[in-house]
User: Which sequence fits this backbone?
């Protein structure tokens, strides 16, 4: 019989985030987003709607952008997880996408930015030659209440055109 | 917006999954990609006692074609249907051609957003049975068969019997949906899909799918299938619109007549996403556009 984890007991969970291993304990119902923020201390991943609509919590799971509010930490074991904390270099050098968001005014309040950065990183790394229409469609995955999106599209397009992601 | 407590098990085999479902019965809920179930759990609209996670179960993510049937494994993610490929008996992977090879990507691009499509699964969407879900409409329109396993048994459930009402299927609590069988439409078929939603990536307010088989000699329609979602608790087939098409030659006038019949035979209920009259208008538009798309014309 396969092992069953009881509902009210926190079980050991090992998460691999930005190349580091985090050994935490979490109830099965702990979402990956909450585990990242509260157990791993990686608060760069933001939570907006908590039902998969806004995309603020987007992280990369084995290279693909996913909603971390729709994943449980226990499900994410064994996967390579990347969050916004992993984008800049160790010396603080910004990732080309972060530079581009800055240069093109792709953010104002910044709440949605970690999600947009990880979405864009996932899209450009797996689909470096993505067309303008497909890129716009991909960026429609996430919500931003400040920019009106055009500057975000321009930022990501500039990184695609420079082949930098 | 946090899910209620649940016990969790992640078997790595189909047998282990069936054992768990047999043991926990209707206390258990199968978790596949989780892109529909987890939002409902976060809203606490769903409060399963036990989650049986099939994410580590092997052998459920294949696609193969044989004897006129495309078999899609329950754990095939939506994104793979954007570029459908089948595994041949000798283990090679080749693109799925033909009418289904063109239709599946047309439908897949309407399923949620990219981050949903790389996690959510075909079988998960079918088992979730949202009446406006693209794959449910496709399954109903093409008379797909759902393959369900339980301990010591297997059965194939036709789409007409599978979808019972909103979020409710004929699957028994101890059954696992392992695959869906779709008929491979021959080159004499013309299929189209169209949906309307207010925001990109949202569930459809109304979606329509059509498939017609043409008589090679005359070009007249020998067989017609018209299915719509968003107008009832399950995706529905529209027999009146289908009868309007059969025996006739495709064209803008015929498509308009069939769409008119379709609009007349649905009985939608209005809600905040659209009144009954608005949904009826959408049925007319979606059916006409799906027919035109299938015929390779605009309008």
Assistant:
């Amino acid at each position: 019989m396969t092992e069953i984890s009881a509902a009210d007991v926190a079980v050991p969970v090992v998460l691999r985030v930005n190349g580091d291993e985090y050994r935490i304990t979490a109830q099965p119902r702990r979402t990956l987003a909450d585990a990242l923020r509260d157990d791993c201390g990686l608060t760069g991943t933001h939570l907006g709607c908590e039902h998969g609509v806004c995309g603020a919590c987007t992280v990369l799971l084995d290279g693909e952008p996913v909603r971390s509010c729709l994943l449980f930490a226990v499900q994410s074991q064994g996967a390579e997880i990347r969050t916004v904390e992993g984008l800049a270099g160790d010396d603080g050098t910004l990732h080309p996408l972060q530079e581009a968001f800055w240069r093109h005014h792709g953010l104002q309040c910044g709440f949605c930015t970690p999600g947009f950065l990880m979405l864009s990183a996932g899209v450009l790394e797996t689909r470096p030659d993505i067309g303008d229409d497909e890129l716009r469609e991909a960026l429609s995955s996430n919500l931003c209440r400040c920019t009106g999106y055009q500057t975000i599209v321009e930022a990501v397009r500039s990184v695609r055109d420079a082949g930098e992601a | 917006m946090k899910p209620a407590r649940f016990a969790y098990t992640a078997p790595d085999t189909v047998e282990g999954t069936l054992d768990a479902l047999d043991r926990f019965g209707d206390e258990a809920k199968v978790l596949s990609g989780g892109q529909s179930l987890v939002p409902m759990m976060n809203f606490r609209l769903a409060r399963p006692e036990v989650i049986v996670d099939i994410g580590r179960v092997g052998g459920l993510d294949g696609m193969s074609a044989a004897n006129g049937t495309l078999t899609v494994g329950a754990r095939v993610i939506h994104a793979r249907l954007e570029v459908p490929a089948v595994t041949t008996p000798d283990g090679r992977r080749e693109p799925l051609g033909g009418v289904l090879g063109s239709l599946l990507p047309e439908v897949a691009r309407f399923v949620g957003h990219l981050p949903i499509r790389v996690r959510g699964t075909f079988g998960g969407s079918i088992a979730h049975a949202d009446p406006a879900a693209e794959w449910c409409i496709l399954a109903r329109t093409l008379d797909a068969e759902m393959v369900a396993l339980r301990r010591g048994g297997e059965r194939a459930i036709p789409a007409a019997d599978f979808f019972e009402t909103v979020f409710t299927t004929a699957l028994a609590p101890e059954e696992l949906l392992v695959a869906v069988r779709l008929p491979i439409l021959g080159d004499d078929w013309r299929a189209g899909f169209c949906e309307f939603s207010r925001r990109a990536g949202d569930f459809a307010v109304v979606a329509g799918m059509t498939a017609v088989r043409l008589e090679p000699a005359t070009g007249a329609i020998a067989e017609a299938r018209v299915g719509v979602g968003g107008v009832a608790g399950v995706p529905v087939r529209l027999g009146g619109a289908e009868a309007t098409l059969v025996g006739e030659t495709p064209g803008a006038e015929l498509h308009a007549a069939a769409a008119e019949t379709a609009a007349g035979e649905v009985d939608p209920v209005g809600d905040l996403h659209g009144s009954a009259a608005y949904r009826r208008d959408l049925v007319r538009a979606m059916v006409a556009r799906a027919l035109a798309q299938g015929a390779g014309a605009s309008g």
Chain A touches chain B at residues 1-8, 27-29, 31, 34, 49-52, 55, 58, 61, 64-67, 69-72, 74-75, 119, 122-123, 137-138, 140-141 (CB under 8 Å). The CA atoms of residues 74 and 122 of chain A lie 22 Å apart.
